[in-house]
């Protein structure tokens, strides 16, 4: 402890054997932290799964942004080619990218933009963040340095050495050096041998966080650039988080007139989030599944706190880390084809902990006595059952996710938006409780019964698309599942229908219903034809304004039984089928045996780590120390009462909450002393130096915590900083 | 101090509602006529609703057709209610504190002895709840009593003398029975917070109206008593402060040790979290130095570590960077640009495949509270090979980080409440009670002074005297070197200018004196210490 306490130093270094011999060890040494966990089996699985998720994320990321980025690239390419002729004097072409408020995500977006620009447009790109540009000088230096040296860092090492041109010192980088460098590089080179450099490459300057820049600096910067534009083909790219008006607001006319602005819109972040969730985490191929509550928590954090996709991915990663941590059982939470091997790797202790899972009990109760004993005594038998059950769980996942998707398709357009629109909302509902039993589901089905033919056909077609695509995914898995199982499992009751059969059944039913509904089209209004004639007659009457007749007619209409058209009949049969089908497919995960292995359920564990509550913790600790200390002495009748056994800070805190904006130190001390030793005379209480010291310390700590501060308004008073 | 103002003060504080209303009537009427557009909406917000309403606005652009969504999983039942922390009290009077104490020490007395004077009960009852007539009656009575206020509490204090044993016993019995219930609930999971906060009485429920806020903050007058600490006779804490150990009762000591023990079990977990490129932040009351120190001792013996005391008053972010870039990585100098530094650290750590651990005690310390320091820390912590463990204490610490900094830090939050005293953290601070005494400066000044030669002391005294005389001037530039030379010569302290300069270097090294060059090129000497302190110093040394 003493080693880090000093009155003259605030930073202490513990090299702990770090040597600066960089090239000494070439062999890839694993970092110390990883080496602790590396031998653990669960860590290995976790690492593998997370890496694969990260890969998928990367792919998805590129896919989602590709359209937008390509647009920008096209613009960047074209801007100096065609406009060469009609280039007005001193006008800079610029792209404005409206990115949205989720700033943490932009880093990735701009990274991929830079990558694309380097590939396709030019090797001279500079990206300057606001923190690197506190003054105009820094801004120019940074930009110019990056433009000149930027291509080196991308190109391979050897060309880096080969080029070895006089490296500019950063402090000497000005616009003038840039223009000299540029004219040397291109104007001179284009005449002699090097043909490929004849095309002048543009210079792209990216300003990712426009709002956090100082406007004056940017204004000056734009003006400077505009004076160089005739010699240097510069393009600006602004990343704007709010709206285009921000650009106009911070640039006065004489500046904005130098810019040729083209605006690009990027996706709102919640769409991207939905994509990430739907394509990566809410699929049956994902190695790890979130329970409904967990997903709700994470999406709430996204929607109500940070709006950042990076954030939600990190939170999911945290959940996954928590899921796997120090639990060998979770090695089973892996790809389906690896389950068999992993089950064999489990030690008997791991098996024991699996036996203790809550979801194992209902499974156990159905079995007969012999099997029960076998399950407990014989590890190998248990392993087999485990394998079988896990495969069943995967089958279940497959049909579950498909059913959720189908449900989503059918109820997406239903009015009132009862269950939510996006897959994640419906998933969260389905995964928490048995959705078929809920009122929301019943209401949805009611609405489905009123849906028009066109709509229904449309949604059935969509559903068929989903079914087909998911059937394609499963086919490669199929041979693996049919690996011969041992035959001594006959006495275990297993419902043998596989998910694939289930899905195929759905497909057949959907197709027949589709055909029937489509055909029912013409027959539907046959019955109603004569009715319509009557209606027409009465409509004429109504125009004369006979209210009585209308009433009568309506009364009559209620009495006449509505004759169902064929379409209506088919529709109600279809809805009944849907109810039955969802009833089978949408059983919530917690009804499944061993669901704990694949589903992350312990939300309360991670909640505090994901959203910290420092203020709440302080308040709880101060107003009720027993919460933390678990002591016998500080038993308080209410959260506000005080007692002498409380820790000093806590006592002082409670007393200070009774005061207004200003606190008289003397009175405070008196009150403090009175609580501590109620028996003494008032005059003498506070004179005990021991109490004074304790009080002083408590006050100092409260000040340190930010509850009070000194006040010069009145002698010996402090100001309260909270209400 | 005359007793007259105190009367007024008491009246206003006790019946403030009325007085303020009366004074402000015309103004408030006028205000209502021009009431702001959103006034109505504002009024409707009872504190209960605030939670959801506050979030609604942020969500408008998300789904327009949908009825406004509400967070489903964010708020659990074991959360601390915001109202509990942030509630307005209707009106703080100077008697509140008094009442509280009475409640704490006197309540058994009230129950048991019929001797308790009636007026005490009146004082205890809630002011807001009393009807006007009673209030007026009370007011008159209180005016009478106020003068003998101290007598009152004396009385109650001594009255509790009569029956201390009985009341103690009773409270003990009741508390122990409650204990059993409590512990039965909380025992199995010691680290999980029990829900004791929810048991609070609901009678303190209070509807926040905007008027109330302005009423609280409008009166410039401070409605507290005029007592000062000067009333205490033995107010020299400086000596006793150092000797006295921190007071922690025995049971609490044991429980705190248990708590800390339980945190030690988290260390492996922390390593795991850190290794996955999360950073760790620990919060909760009590000094967390020892926990983090233990973590370092146990787990980080073989890796380079940088420990930063954020509470250190002259810490600069530059010194942190220097420690990493120069001392650890062995570079000769620090690049000027922040992004260069970060890339340099990144590259070097990557090359040597080492992990660097940053342990920051009090990341919310005064010197780290600027956005520049935080953004530097954020971008360093973001690096793959740097792992940060930081502690925060200040209640508003989370305000330090904006969106992008938070995402760079990628924190996982851990509640590490220790209840340990902040001895090191507050040792630099001038406590409110020890009164900006500058004891530290004074003592260091003294110890340097004592090691000086008599001639040097004379020179130093000359500078002090000059400064004390002339500091009142608005543009005090310091003592010109020439003047000091002539003064010193007069007193035969030095014989040449060179000798004087040699003496001065001593002061300069200890930063007792600063040299300031004026525009005309002459050198001026300034002592960078408060004049009051200097005065004190002179008095003690002559």
TrEMBL record, chain A:
Q: What is its main location?
A: nucleus
Q: Name one GO cellular component term.
A: nuclear pre-replicative complex
Q: Which GO terms describe its biological process?
A: DNA replication initiation
Domain (Origin recognition complex subunit 3 winged helix C-terminal) ranges: 615-723
Mind telling me which InterPro entries this protein's record contains? Answer: ORC3 (IPR020795), ORC3_ins (IPR045663), ORC3_N (IPR045667), ORC_WH_C (IPR040855)
Kindly list the places in or outside the cell where this protein is found, as annotated in its UniProt entry: Nucleus
Q: How does it assemble?
A: Component of ORC, a complex composed of at least 6 subunits: ORC1, ORC2, ORC3, ORC4, ORC5 and ORC6. ORC is regulated in a cell-cycle dependent manner. It is sequentially assembled at the exit from anaphase of mitosis and disassembled as cells enter S phase.
Q: To which protein family does this belong?
A: Belongs to the ORC3 family.
Indicate what this protein is called per its UniProt record: Origin recognition complex subunit 3
Organism encoding this protein: Leptosia nina
UniProtKB/TrEMBL annotation, chain B:
* Extent of Low complexity compositional bias: 153-162
GO biological process terms held by the UniProt record: DNA replication
**Matches recorded under Pfam families:** RecA-like_ORC2 (PF04084), WHD_ORC2 (PF24882)
Keywords assigned by UniProt?
A: DNA replication, Nucleus
Q: Where in the cell is it found?
A: Nucleus
The annotated regions of Basic residues compositional bias extend over 28-37
Q: What is this protein called?
A: Origin recognition complex subunit 2
Organism equals: Leptosia nina
């Amino acid at each position: 402890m003493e080693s880090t306490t000093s009155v003259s130093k605030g930073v202490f270094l513990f090299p702990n054997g770090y040597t600066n011999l960089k090239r000494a060890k070439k062999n890839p040494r694993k970092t110390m932290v990883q080496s602790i966990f590396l031998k653990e089996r669960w860590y290995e699985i976790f690492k593998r799964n997370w890496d694969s998720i990260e890969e998928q994320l990367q792919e998805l990321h590129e896919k989602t942004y590709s359209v937008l980025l390509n647009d920008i690239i096209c613009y960047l390419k074209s801007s100096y080619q065609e406009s060469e002729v009609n280039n007005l004097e001193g006008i800079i072409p610029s792209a404005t990218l409206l990115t949205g408020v989720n700033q943490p995500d932009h880093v990735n977006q701009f990274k991929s933009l830079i990558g694309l620009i380097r590939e396709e447009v030019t090797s001279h790109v500079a990206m300057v963040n606001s923190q690197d540009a506190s003054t105009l000088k820094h801004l120019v230096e940074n930009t110019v340095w990056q433009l000149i040296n930027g291509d080196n860092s991308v190109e391979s090492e050897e060309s880096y050495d080969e080029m070895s041109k006089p490296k500019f010192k950063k402090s000497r980088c000005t616009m003038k050096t840039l223009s000299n460098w540029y004219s040397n590089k291109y104007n001179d080179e284009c005449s002699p041998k090097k043909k490929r450099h004849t095309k002048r490459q543009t210079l792209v300057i990216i300003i990712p966080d426009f709002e956090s820049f100082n406007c004056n600096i940017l204004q000056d910067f734009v003006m400077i650039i505009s004076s160089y534009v005739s010699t240097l083909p510069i393009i600006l790219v602004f990343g704007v988080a709010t709206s285009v008006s921000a650009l106009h607001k911070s640039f006065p006319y004489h500046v904005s007139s130098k810019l040729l602005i083209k605006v690009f819109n990027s996706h709102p972040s919640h769409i991207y989030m939905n994509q990430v969730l739907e394509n990566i985490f809410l699929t049956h191929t994902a190695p790890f599944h979130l329970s409904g509550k967990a997903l709700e928590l994470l999406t709430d954090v996204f929607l109500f706190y940070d709006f950042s996709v990076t954030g939600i991915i990190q939170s999911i990663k945290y959940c996954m880390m928590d899921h796997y941590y120090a639990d060998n059982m979770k090695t089973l939470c892996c790809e389906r084809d690896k389950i068999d091997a992993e089950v064999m790797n489990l030690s008997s202790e791991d098996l024991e902990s699996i036996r203790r899972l809550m979801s194992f009990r209902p499974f156990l109760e159905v079995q007969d006595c012999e099997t029960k004993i076998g399950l407990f005594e014989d590890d190998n038998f248990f392993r087999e059952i485990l394998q079988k059950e896990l495969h069943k769980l995967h089958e279940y996942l497959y049909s579950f996710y498909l059913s959720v998707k189908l449900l989503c398709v059918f109820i997406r357009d239903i009015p009132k938006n009862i269950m939510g629109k996006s897959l994640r909302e419906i998933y969260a509902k389905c995964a928490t409780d048995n959705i078929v039993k809920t009122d929301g589901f019943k209401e949805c089905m009611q609405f489905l019964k009123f849906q028009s033919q066109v709509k229904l056909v449309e949604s059935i077609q969509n559903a068929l698309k989903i079914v087909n695509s998911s059937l394609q995914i499963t086919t490669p898995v199929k041979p693996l599942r049919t690996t011969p199982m041992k035959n001594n499992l006959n006495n275990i009751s297993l419902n043998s229908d596989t998910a694939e059969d289930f899905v195929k059944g759905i497909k057949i039913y959907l197709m027949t219903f589709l055909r029937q509904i489509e055909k029912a089209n013409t027959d539907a209004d046959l019955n109603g034809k004569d009715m319509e004639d009557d209606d027409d007659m009465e409509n004429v009457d109504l125009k004369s304004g006979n209210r009585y007749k209308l009433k009568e007619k309506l009364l009559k209409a209620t009495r006449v039984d509505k004759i169902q058209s064929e379409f209506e009949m088919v529709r109600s049969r279809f809805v009944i089928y849907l109810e039955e089908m969802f009833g089978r497919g949408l059983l919530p995960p917690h009804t499944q045996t061993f669901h704990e292995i694949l589903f992350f359920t312990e939300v309360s564990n991670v909640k505090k780590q994901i959203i910290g509550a420092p203020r709440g913790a302080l308040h709880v600790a101060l107003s009720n120390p027993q919460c933390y200390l678990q002591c016998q002495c500080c038993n308080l009748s209410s959260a506000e009462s005080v007692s002498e056994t409380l820790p000093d800070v806590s006592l002082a805190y409670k007393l200070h909450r009774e005061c207004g904006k200003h606190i008289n130190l003397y009175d405070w001390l008196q009150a403090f002393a009175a609580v501590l030793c109620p028996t003494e005379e008032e005059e003498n209480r506070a004179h005990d130096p021991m109490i004074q010291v304790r009080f002083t310390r408590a006050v100092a700590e409260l000040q340190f915590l930010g509850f009070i501060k000194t006040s010069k308004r009145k002698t010996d008073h402090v100001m309260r900083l909270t209400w | 101090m005359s007793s007259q103002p105190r009367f007024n003060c008491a009246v206003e504080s006790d019946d403030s509602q009325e007085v303020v209303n009366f004074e402000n009537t015309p103004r408030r009427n006028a205000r209502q006529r021009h009431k702001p557009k959103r006034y109505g909406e504002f009024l409707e917000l009872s504190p209960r609703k605030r939670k959801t309403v506050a979030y609604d606005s942020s969500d408008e652009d998300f789904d327009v057709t949908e009825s406004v969504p509400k967070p489903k999983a964010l708020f659990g039942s074991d959360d601390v209610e915001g109202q509990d922390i942030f509630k307005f009290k209707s009106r703080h009077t100077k008697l509140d504190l008094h009442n509280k104490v009475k409640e704490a020490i006197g309540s058994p007395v009230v129950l048991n002895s019929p001797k308790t004077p009636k007026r005490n009960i009146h004082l205890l009852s809630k002011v807001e709840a009393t009807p006007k007539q009673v209030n007026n009656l009370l007011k008159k009575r209180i005016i009478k009593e106020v003068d003998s206020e101290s007598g009152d509490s004396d009385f109650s204090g001594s009255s509790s003398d009569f029956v201390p044993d009985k009341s103690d016993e009773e409270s003990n019995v009741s508390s122990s029975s409650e204990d059993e219930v409590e512990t039965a609930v909380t025992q199995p999971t010691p680290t999980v917070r029990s829900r004791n906060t929810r048991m609070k009485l609901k009678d303190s429920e209070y509807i926040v109206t905007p008027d109330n806020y302005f009423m609280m903050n409008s009166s410039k007058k401070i409605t507290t008593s005029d007592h000062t600490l000067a009333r205490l006779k033995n107010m020299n804490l400086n000596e006793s402060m150092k000797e006295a150990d921190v007071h922690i009762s025995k049971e609490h000591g044991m429980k705190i040790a248990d708590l800390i023990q339980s945190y030690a079990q988290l260390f492996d977990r922390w390593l795991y979290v850190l290794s996955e490129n999360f950073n760790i932040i620990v919060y909760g009351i009590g000094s967390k130095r020892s926990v983090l120190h233990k973590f370092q001792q146990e787990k980080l013996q073989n890796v380079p570590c940088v420990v930063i005391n954020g509470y250190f008053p002259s810490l600069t972010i530059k010194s942190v960077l220097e420690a990493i870039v120069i001392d650890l990585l062995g570079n000769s100098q620090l690049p000027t640009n922040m992004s260069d530094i970060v890339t340099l650290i990144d590259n070097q750590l990557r090359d040597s495949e080492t992990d660097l651990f940053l342990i920051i005690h009090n990341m919310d310390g005064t010197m780290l509270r600027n956005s520049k320091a935080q953004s530097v820390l954020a971008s360093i912590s973001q690096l793959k090979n740097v792992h940060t463990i930081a502690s925060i204490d200040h209640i508003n610490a989370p305000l330090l980080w904006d969106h992008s900094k938070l995402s760079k830090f990628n924190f996982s939050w851990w509640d590490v409440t220790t209840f340990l005293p902040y001895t090191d953290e507050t040792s630099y601070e001038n406590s409110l009670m020890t009164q900006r005494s500058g004891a530290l400066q004074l003592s260091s000044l003294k110890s340097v002074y004592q090691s000086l030669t008599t001639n040097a002391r004379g020179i130093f005294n000359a500078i002090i005297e000059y400064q004390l005389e002339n500091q009142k001037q608005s543009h005090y530039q310091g003592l010109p070197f020439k003047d000091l030379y002539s003064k010193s010569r007069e007193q035969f302290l030095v014989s040449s200018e060179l000798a004087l300069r040699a003496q001065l270097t001593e002061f300069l090294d200890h930063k007792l004196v600063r040299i300031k060059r004026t525009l005309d090129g002459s050198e001026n000497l300034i002592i960078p210490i408060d004049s009051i302190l200097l005065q004190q110093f002179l008095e003690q040394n002559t």
